[in-house]
Amino acid sequence: MHRAITDERMWRSRFKGAETATLDVATPDGPGTIELTMSERVDKDRTPMVVRKVLKDEMSLTRTDRWGALEGDTATGVLHAHSTGIPGKVEGRYTLRRSGDGAVLQVSGEIEVKIRFVGGAIEPLGVQLLTRLANGERDYTTKWLSS
Hints:
Blueprint: H1 2-5, H2 8-15, E1 21-26, E2 34-42, H3 49-54, E3 59-67, E4 74-84, E5 88-99, E6 102-113, H4 119-146
Antiparallel strand pairs: 1-2, 2-3, 3-4, 4-5, 5-6
């Protein structure tokens, strides 16, 4: 699993054909590591109503994931994300470890939206979005590994 997560080809394949998203890939810490910066423009009509009400301009999301090398049976990573259009940020941590014949990925973090009165209503939507994103990336990585 770690080999796939740190393989530029897997990420390029994942983003192939994405019309509103960009991907930058680097390996600043050498082989077995990766830094991914993913940006996506979000159409206002694809956002929940509570978000549309406070969205001033077009919204874009930028996320940077940085994965370290495998150390024994464990690898760790960090994630940072922010958006334009809504003042918010995400800070997170990944831990990937071997489990039997597979792997377990633990994701933890915080989401903060700094908008008076509605920020607390938007933060759970961010959690839902990140959960769907993590599940989609897990499914894509599993499929990519089996091909």
